[in-house]
Design a protein that fits this description.
Strand 2 and strand 3 form a beta hairpin. With 293 residues, this protein is α+β, with helices and mostly antiparallel strands. The chain contains nine helices and nine strands. It has two domains: 94 residues, no CATH class; 124 residues, ATPase, nucleotide binding domain (Nucleotidyltransferase, domain 5, 2-Layer Sandwich), CATH 3.30.420.40.
Length: 293
């Protein structure tokens, strides 16, 4: 049996349900109007008083063994235990579960877009022979390098054609990912172009994992070296900028003020966050709070 339609329920089961007489202390609960649960087509629902509480249960009549042993399963708000018994013991599932399982199986095995025959034919038609290549680690690496070189060239040309000297701002940040456990560095440039429009570019981000020898004197040295390198890649230096913004972290603030000799300003989102925490007294230890209220 693989579905719950009445015509597929054995006559012996239907007769057992129709002629069922509850044991002493049990009360038979007939199906409600419009109720079509599969468990009521293979058993009966009863109630019994236990410890001064009315408990609801389901008695399976799906086989001679269950009928003889008076197999009863306690019901709560859902009927998952009863339906699991039908599936595991009698291999019975509802039409809805069967259809859902078939749909799920089909969805899980659908080919990707590029695997469809139509997609392959279209690719053969519109792609020139000389542009076809095998995708592997080497070609992906080469493509990333070409993309970076192209973007860097565009940004470099824009910088030298548009930026007014000494009014550029750098935004430097150092963050970490809680999920990956990685630290990141980032550098963004803010400027005004020759049409007096405010523009910004993310010059680069990278994992910050200096070796033990590099961080022997602290992380500021490798930090500054990376900043200098990325500025050099774009034909820039600290002399092209007036100031920089960041949070008040000791390392990034030192980088902008002492390392690059720039005018430092608070990053507004970090300033707002810090001010809010200070005003609300949000600190690691209560004794450090300035808000004693």
């Amino acid at each position: 049996m693989s579905n719950n339609r009445s015509m597929n329920v054995p006559v012996a089961v239907r007769d057992a349900i129709r002629n069922y007489q509850p044991l002493p202390g049990f009360t038979l609960v007939p199906p409600k109007a419009g109720e079509r649960s599969i468990i009521l087509q293979w058993g009966v629902r009863v109630t019994v008083e236990l410890d001064w509480k009315i408990c609801t249960g389901w008695i399976c009549l799906g086989s001679e063994s269950c009928r003889q042993h008076h197999k009863i399963i306690k019901l709560y708000e859902k009927t998952s235990k009863a339906t699991k018994h039908l599936k595991d013991v009698h291999s019975i599932t509802s039409d809805k579960s069967t259809v859902f399982g078939a749909l799920l199986s089909r969805e899980m095995t659908l080919p990707a877009l590029g695997e469809y025959e139509e997609s392959r034919l279209l690719n053969e038609l519109v792609t020139n022979e000389r542009y076809r290549t095998t995708t592997n680690a080497q070609t992906v690496t080469d493509a990333i390098g070409e993309l970076y070189a192209s973007v860097k060239g565009e940004i470099t040309n824009f910088i030298f054609e548009n930026i007014v000297p000494n009014i550029t701002f750098f935004y430097c940040f150092r963050g970490s990912s809680k999920t990956q456990g990685e630290r990141y560095l980032g550098l963004r440039i803010y400027c005004i172009d020759n049409k007096c429009r405010f523009r910004s570019f993310l010059l680069g981000t990278r994992h910050f994992r200096p070796s033990y020898g590099e961080r022997d004197g602290g992380i500021r040295i490798p930090f500054k070296r990376w900043i200098d390198q990325i500025l050099f890649d774009f034909g820039l230096s600290a002399n092209n900028s007036f100031g920089g913004t960041s949070d008040a972290g000791a390392d990034v603030k030192w980088m902008l003020t002492e390392g690059l000799k720039l005018q430092w300003e608070w990053c507004n989102p970090h300033l707002t966050n810090t001010a809010t925490k200070a005003a609300c007294g949000i600190v690691n230890y209560k004794s450090q709070s300035k808000n004693k209220g």
